[in-house]
Amino acid sequence: MKSIYPPEDFVEKANVKDPAIYSKAKENWIDYWESFAKELHWFEPWEKFFDDSKAPYYRFFVNGKINASYNCVDRHLKEKRNKAAIIWEGEKGENRVLTYFDLYREVGKLSNALRNLGVKKGDKVGIYMPNLPEAVISMLAAARIGATHVFIFAGFSPKSAAFRMKDSGVKLLITADGYYRRGNLINLKEKADEALEEYKGVENVVVVRRAGNEIDMKEGRDHDYAELVRKEKAKSECEITDANDPLFIIYTSGSVAEPKGIIHSTGGYLVHVYATSKIVLDLKDEDVLFCTADLGWITGHSYSVYGPLSLGATVLLYEGAPDYPDICRTFELIEKYGVTVFYTVPTLVRMLQGCGNIDSFDLSTLRLIGSVGEPLEAENWLWLYEEVGKKKCPVVDTWWQTETGGIVIAPIPALTPMKPGSVSKPLPGIEVDIYDSGGKKAKPYQLGHLVIKKMFPGFMLGIHGDPKAYVQLYWSKFGKRVYLTGDYAYYDEDGYIWISGRADDVINISGHRVSLVEIEKVVKELREVADCAAIGVPDRIKGTAIALFVVAEKSDDLAEKIKKKIEEDIGRIALPRLIVFVKELPKTAGKVFKRAIADAVIKKEISGIASNVEVVKKIAEKIDKNA
Ligand code: WTA
């Protein structure tokens, strides 16, 4: 496909327009990253930029002292005191604006309250909240006092929340009474209470009054957020944290049954999201960034909070569902707040195409569009470029992961000719490759494992409480110097990278990582279920959906029971689109042969080894009946 060159107007004003950035980063890798680090505020400079002596544990900015909250708030007070840091809109259209000075006060007050409740440096603070300003304030308040935040996506079930709190050892939880989702009131406090029945390690719960719904407040344990902070002073000393102190833990799904707690550093992480917000999202002082991700996912952490706020930009935070009251809500928000940089996921891009007359919205403020989370098909790329951006906005397809902290592969919008459907090339200072299973570089168009060969500051510190999994999942296939991403990809003849999808038992639903093994484990816990297999099947809107094959006597009751169990144990996000009851699953060496099922369902092909063919045929027949 033909390359598309960045629009001239855009290039003229871009943050980065000198192509030498690539060669400079190659020749002097340390200088490249350090130059970004020097734009942030450090209490004490680092002694060494990079330490790989304990590979595969890599450390950056060794012994540097820095505070993330200081860099996202205090640093801007002199020049941006009255500038909007966060513009918030609730699902019902309510609106709040917090200036940098407001943010400073709110973060300071809450951090003092947390201190008074006994939270100390290194303690874990849970945040179980939807997209509310208080969620951002909570993250920054924890960071201010050197505590590690553990954000739990509000859509997760109490069981999932309990698992995350227990695994990370959360001591204090910040949550909300309720919130709105597609017009319905969700009683979040009730979910939190249920989680706290299961995990008893939380001493104090701070409750934001968002919806005003009736809730139980447990004497001695639960505190009203507003009452708690009212008495506190805004001034709050920043803890001097080390560059390699954990800023947060965030859970993500892997190819094992249990979610893993990915630990991110303070210094390296901040430098990485700061730098990428500047070079890829091209953020400038006058921008309004709308990142549509939920704060509970890494994209929300990096590009609704730490990246843009460390740069002193303005962030639009939206609480509700993107399709409420109708599918055009996102365009309404862009128009209403004059959004200039729009960062979203392909699922929403596909949904938005149902909005009808885009031209009834004034989207002329937009100057850059970005995408992340799953492959952005060429046709969707072109729709964004032509219909939404009117050929004035570069569309940057950015590849990265929870583990990488920030963007790794993406065009630099003013420099890189864009190929719709490709994530283009790694950013300066980062080296990736595509390997065949034997560790040899793949030829053009040969599908292989996407790997990372040169570390970068945003890379995770490790997995909380599970060093074995860290080594086994990422560093055992190609050794301690080559990071296995878990994605399949290929090069084209120009060395552009095309991502094909996950190579492991993880799928992307609406840009969210879901573990198939985790779903299978939960379903197998039901007495009636003898065996089961979950596979990902293409879905027009969500990208991928789940089809579940269950060995059990068919009954409507059981299908409902399975759905209820998945919803309770994981969350609605993991609900299957299709449940098929079968007599048997194809197996090889005792393991379910999922590829054979997938071939039968997706490609309508009967594959697998001889002994399985009949079993697979039966499954295929069932599917036809179900279709
Ligand atoms: C997928 C989200 C294609 C990929 C930031 C990766 C993508 C997983 C892209 C990480 C992209 C992310 N094109 N696929 N531009 N970006 N992915 O941890 O499979 O929730 O491994 O982080 O999303 O998902 P995670």
Automatic annotation (TrEMBL):
Residues 20-72 form the Acetyl-coenzyme A synthetase N-terminal domain. Pfam families: ACAS_N, AMP-binding, AMP-binding_C. One of its GO terms (biological process) is carbon fixation by 3-hydroxypropionate cycle. This is Acetate--CoA ligase. Its EC number is 6.2.1.1. It comes from Ferroglobus placidus (strain DSM 10642 / AEDII12DO). Keywords: ATP-binding, Ligase, Nucleotide-binding. GO terms for molecular function: 3-hydroxypropionyl-CoA synthetase activity; acetate-CoA ligase activity; AMP binding; ATP binding. Residues 74-454 form the AMP-dependent synthetase/ligase domain. The lineage of its organism: Archaea, Methanobacteriati, Methanobacteriota, Archaeoglobi, Archaeoglobales. Belongs to the ATP-dependent AMP-binding enzyme family. SUPFAM superfamilies: Acetyl-CoA synthetase-like. Residues 518-589 form the AMP-binding enzyme C-terminal domain.
